[in-house]
Amino acid sequence: MRDLCPQLELKILDPRLNDWGLPRYQTAMSAGIDLHACIDAPLTLEPQAPAVLIPSGIAVLMNDPHLVAFLLARSGLGHKKGLVLGQAVGTIDADYANQIFISAWLRTPPGSESFTINPGDRIAQLVFLPIVRPAFTIVDDFSAQTDRGLGGFGSTGV
Questions:
Q1: How far apart are CA 156 and CA 154, in angstroms?
Q2: Measuring CA to CA, which residue among 27, 13, 47, 17 is closest to residue 122?
Q3: Global pTM value
Q4: Based on the number of CB atoms within 10 Å of its own CB, is 70 exposed (0-12), middle (13-18) or buried (19 or more)?
Q5: What is the domain partition of the chain in residue ranges?
Q6: What is the pLDDT of residues 99-121, one digit of tens each?
Q7: CA dist., res. 158 & res. 153, Å (int)
Q8: Distance separating alpha carbons of residues 49 and 117, to the nearest angstrom
Q9: Which of 29, 52, 109, 146 is the most buried (most CB within 10 A)?
């Protein structure tokens, strides 16, 4: 069985994180570590405006083909304020070792209240997951059938 608590290398690229708080799990059962907005001045996002890339001030080296990190919105900010990721989920591959950037977007309808991100605000979370990397065999027909068969999207009903 793979190590469920791998030791990863974390590089602090913005020294202000030493004051704001180094990346960590906020509770004993948190799934992700919160990421801070490493910006120099407040940044105001307008509803439906183009997504903005915000530096996280960190880089992580996983260097393991069986690991991936997903960049996700913080649920409270997404639900209450409309702050989500520009690409919904950001995939950080195991061989990516540069700074992690947060693509931030305000999903609220035009005319809604803007949202201001201040330097040091926790605006996203990083979740690490195991990856299965199957080998493929090219076939003309599958070797088994399923109950669904060739039924497509919606074939099992509502």
A1: 6
A2: 17
A3: 0.86
A4: middle
A5: 9-130
A6: 999 999 999 999 999 999 999 99
A7: 11
A8: 15
A9: 52
pLDDT at 1 over 50: no
> What's the per-residue H, E or C state across the chain?
CCCCCCCCEEEECCCCHHHHCCCCECCCCCCEEEEECCCCCCEEECCCCCCEEEECCEEEECCCCCEEEEEEECHHHHHHCCEEECCCCEEECCCCCCCCEEEEEECCCCCCCCEEECCCCEEEEEEEEECCCCCCCCCCCCCCCCCCCCCCCCCCCC
By C-alpha distance, which of 120, 118, 91, 117 is closest to 106?
117
List the structure tokens of 6: 């791998």
CATH tag for 9-130 (out of 3.40.50.12780, 2.70.40.10, 2.40.30.10, 2.60.120.280): 2.70.40.10
Are 50 and 60 spatial neighbours (Cβ–Cβ below 8 Å)? no
C-alpha–C-alpha distance, residues 5 and 144, integer Å: 36
